[in-house]
Design a protein that fits this description.
Layout (H helix, E strand, L loop, with lengths): L7 H13 L2 H4 L9 H25 L5 H9 L1 H34 L6 H17 L1 H26 L16 H13 L21 H27 L1 H5 L4 H7 L11 H30 L9 H14 L4 H15 L1 H26 L1
Helix pairs in contact: 1-7, 1-9, 1-12, 3-8, 3-9, 3-15, 4-5, 4-15, 5-6, 5-12, 5-13, 6-7, 6-12, 6-13, 7-12, 8-14, 9-11, 11-12, 12-13
Length: about 375
């Protein structure tokens, strides 16, 4: 079977939809009220240097993914231990995103349907696309990003008559403390979650496309999240915004153009579903790729069905209810995810730079 290679344009589409994912509907950390958009700008400025570190790893290890890098740098034993941790993180993140969709369906869309049913449908779709290959996922992401972008722009324009600009005053009324707290939350969710993409670095072209993919993806997704956050803030206000589980759905439901253009929140829900489909699919691919590397399987496809069903089952029982899910996402996750997103990758980068310089000095 020939090696899969995804062009940079399709990879950027995957990165944009992956980062925007759940945050389009659940929003980002909201302790800072009407200053939350400032926290997102700070989070983007913190994420870009981290993306450059991730991209540097692709230069140091061309054609290799995260699991190959860990084993090459930290050895067969400790490298596989760290690989197990990243397999769990990818599996857990995919389950968390699926649960976001399940809670949305149970709360808003399909209130009488068991939550496992819509999650299983999305899970089976992700299993199918991952089994078909990353090239299929890349082409799907490119089309879905264009569709999502058109819908987001149209909704933004239709929301303008509902904007209440006094909701942005007074700026920084709670001080800088909540802004910095929201910066940490927005940095780990969603921007630094792109560390999952390192598990798919083997599908990127050999030459330095990782910088373009990661930085461009982060900036484009960041701009989208800022505009969506500002729209929700101007339509709903900071007090209502902080009390909602799915603020984007409520904000879009307020759109009423005349008596003929109403109830268009379903279109916003479609964007949410397409983004989480790409995010869960990438998490599933990275999980299966890690399992295949850990147990030296011939192909990751041999475990896609099993790991996909485990991900769906995990998403069903991992949280008791929507309040527990949101508490974990906004309070515990920023601490839980930091080693996976920052600590281990920086250790890997420093160790890889040292090994690279030793090899170059020996060759000289």
């Amino acid at each position: 079977m020939s090696k899969e290679i995804i062009p940079a344009g399709q990879s950027i589409s995957i990165a944009v939809l992956f980062i925007s994912g759940s945050s389009l509907f659940m929003g980002t950390s909201g302790q800072s009220g009407n200053s939350s958009w400032i926290a997102i700008i700070f989070a983007i400025s913190l994420a870009v240097p981290l993306m450059l570190i991730y991209a540097r790893l692709h230069v140091l290890f061309p054609g290799k993914d995260l699991y190959d890098m860990l084993i090459a740098v930290f050895g067969a034993v400790f490298g596989r231990v760290l690989s197990c941790l990243y397999i769990w993180y990818a599996l857990h993140l995919g389950a968390l995103v699926l649960r976001n969709f399940g809670e949305f369906s149970k709360t808003v869309a399909l209130t009488s349907t068991p939550m496992i049913a819509p999650m299983l449908m999305i899970g089976l779709l992700c299993i199918w696309v991952v089994n078909a290959g990353m090239e299929v996922l890349g082409r799907s992401a490119k089309f879905l990003l264009l569709f999502s972008f058109i819908v987001i722009v149209l909704i933004q324009l239709l929301s303008v008559p509902k904007f209440e600009y006094h909701h942005m005053k007074p700026l920084l009324d709670s001080g800088w403390g909540p802004v910095f707290a929201d910066t940490a939350g927005s940095f780990t969710f969603p921007f630094a979650e792109i560390v999952i993409f390192l598990g798919a670095f083997n599908v990127l072209p050999a030459k330095g496309s990782a910088t373009r993919v990661l930085v461009s993806g982060s900036l484009i997704a960041g701009i989208i999240i800022i505009f969506v956050t500002l729209r929700n803030l101007l339509v709903l206000g900071p007090d209502i915004l902080s009390s909602l589980y799915f603020p984007s759905y409520v904000a879009v439901s307020r759109i009423n153009i005349g008596d003929f253009l109403t109830r268009i929140e379903g279109s916003a829900a479609i964007v949410f579903v397409t983004a989480l489909f790409i995010k869960v699919s990438l998490c599933l691919y990275v999980t299966c790729n890690g399992v295949s590397k850990l147990f030296k399987l011939k192909s990751y496809r041999s475990v896609v069905l099993q790991m996909g069903l485990i991900m769906v089952y995990l998403s069903d029982f991992i949280y008791k209810d929507i309040m527990e899910m949101q508490y974990f996402a906004y309070h515990i996750y920023k601490v839980y995810a930091l080693p996976f997103q920052v600590v281990i990758p920086i250790m890997l980068w420093i160790a890889a730079e040292i090994l690279s310089r030793r090899k170059s000095s020996k060759s000289i």
